[in-house]
Design brief:
The protein is mostly helical and 208 residues long. It contains eleven helices and no strands. The protein is elongated.
Length: 208
């Protein structure tokens, strides 16, 4: 019976260092500006050593890209299925907003977000995944949550898709604003409570 051979620890560690360095550089300079030479220099290895772990820069980018759209949202909708938990009403929206807040202030996810913003106009693949992720994985599931709230007479009737878009759009903007503030080395403490305030404001307008 054959066994799957695990990647040696040293090789695995080097691979992770390459990905972290590439992520840092791409967050600053974009895909085109993050050359294999720069990545190797940041890791402290020869440029040729990169190819022991990745075929080329495109493969590095695709590996990073796979994590660009893998976030705590996956766990959120799994742990809080809208079909069941949306009856919590405002509390459900608070939990969702808290997830975005966590992403917004997390250093690693901020780097991933920067890459998305830099590459969305340049890469068809990033644009395709961005639209799929934000519509299919967020807006559609949020719309299900609002539909459930309507069924339980928690909120006024309306278009659940539009309601989901109206709720999500400001949260996305706050995440972008935090990233821009940090890029300019401006303090972000003034935005620390904006997510909760948005939920309060939004709920006041839709609650019965």
């Amino acid at each position: 019976m054959s066994q799957v051979q695990e990647e040696p620890k040293v090789a695995k560690d080097t691979k992770e260092k390459i990905l972290r360095a590439a992520m840092d550089l791409m967050a600053l300079y974009g895909y085109k500006g993050a050359s294999v030479r720069k990545i190797a220099k940041a890791v402290g290895i020869r440029e040729s050593a990169i190819y022991n772990h990745f075929k080329n820069k495109e493969e590095i980018f695709k590996t990073i890209l796979a994590s660009l759209f893998t976030t705590p949202f996956d766990d959120f909708f799994e742990n809080h299925p809208p079909e069941k938990d949306a009856i919590e009403g405002k509390n459900y929206l608070m939990k969702f907003a808290a997830t975005i807040k966590e992403l917004s202030f997390d250093a690693r996810n901020e780097k991933l977000f920067r890459i998305i913003m830099l590459e969305i106009m340049q890469s068809d693949e990033v644009r395709k995944q961005f639209l799929k992720y934000f519509f299919d994985e967020n807006i559609k599931k949020l719309s299900t949550a609002f539909f459930v709230m309507m069924q339980h007479a928690l909120i006024r009737s309306g278009d659940p898709i539009l309601m989901a878009q109206e709720f999500f759009a400001p949260l996305f903007y706050y995440r972008l604003e935090i990233t821009l503030f940090r890029m300019d080395e401006r303090p972000t403490h003034s935005l620390s409570s904006i997510f909760e305030k948005h939920v309060d404001f939004f709920w006041e307008g839709i609650a019965l």
